[in-house]
Amino acid sequence: MASMDFIEQNICIISGLACVFLTFLYVGSLYIWRSNLSRDHPTTIKRRFLSVCCMMLLAPVFTHALLKDEMLQKGDIYEYMGFRMSGMISALFVPLFLTAILFLGPLTMHFIAGTWKLYAEPMYWISSWQDLVWLRNHIMAPLSEEWVFRSCMMPLLLQCLEPFTAVFTGPLLFGIAHFHHVHEMLANGRSLKSALFIALFQFSFTTVFGAYSAYLFLRTGHLFAPVIAHIFCNHLGFPNFFEVFHFPLMQRILIICNFLLGLFLWCYLLVPLTDPYIYDNKLQLLA
């Protein structure tokens, strides 16, 4: 009884520490296998698949144990973790459309270069599903990261933080989780200065994306909204602005205009296209 009282009285500190612990545990699970093999080696990927699967089983235990009863008066734990059938179709397609608008510039480059035709080739998809690196980047990483950092952590943060504060706090842990790439870059021969510069850039980019992902999660009330956006962003990667200058002048102007247009439309449509009503989100944690 005394332990339960202690947890209730210090639930904010404990929830915050639980999120930090899950962050380090997620990263640590990738390195429990002692090996000199690269991160792209099939053996490494398979082992890490097993590690993150274990993390996906462990993380919701913390959410279930620490989520306060008063939080559950508005909805059950499955709703807080983004598991709902109602609004599923909208959650799968509308956030994808919204994210694609943001990437209008890179998509224009793909269209002009003709690389989009690759997606019409059945062999592209067959070979992709047989490629462990592709599966890691497009399936396992987005699914496991959104499950742990959004579904399992966000309900804990919402117990103590305002929704907007949680949107920008949780992603800091998500960004920090990507600092482990420093170790891999150093192992591959990069200088410390170069590795730190790249890691800081990745931290900035992943933190910003994490905030967008958390926003989608809270507005839609669906796990698969940020998962789909994450898959899309992982596929296209960070826009290569220097590549624009490889195109002829008129195409270059079109691409630059679409970069700006995409950003403008994304900002304009972000709120209306994530309206909780579209997704039948009754919790409306970020209305």
TrEMBL record:
GO terms for biological process: CAAX-box protein processing. It catalyses: Hydrolyzes the peptide bond -P2-(S-farnesyl or geranylgeranyl)C-P1'-P2'-P3'-COOH where P1' and P2' are amino acids with aliphatic sidechains and P3' is any C-terminal residue. The keyword Cell membrane does not apply. It comes from the Eukaryota. Keywords: Endoplasmic reticulum, Hydrolase, Membrane, Protease, Transmembrane, Transmembrane helix. GO terms for molecular function: metalloendopeptidase activity. It is found in: Endoplasmic reticulum membrane. The keyword Endoplasmic reticulum applies. Residues 132-235 form the CAAX prenyl protease 2/Lysostaphin resistance protein A-like domain. One of its GO terms (cellular component) is endoplasmic reticulum membrane. Its main location: endoplasmic reticulum. Its EC number is 3.4.26.1. It is a multi-pass membrane protein. The chain crosses the membrane at residues 12-33, 49-67, 88-113, 163-182, 194-217, 253-271. Belongs to the peptidase U48 family. PANTHER family: CAAX PRENYL PROTEASE 2 (PTHR13046:SF0), PROTEASE U48 CAAX PRENYL PROTEASE RCE1 (PTHR13046). This is CAAX prenyl protease 2. It comes from Euphydryas editha.
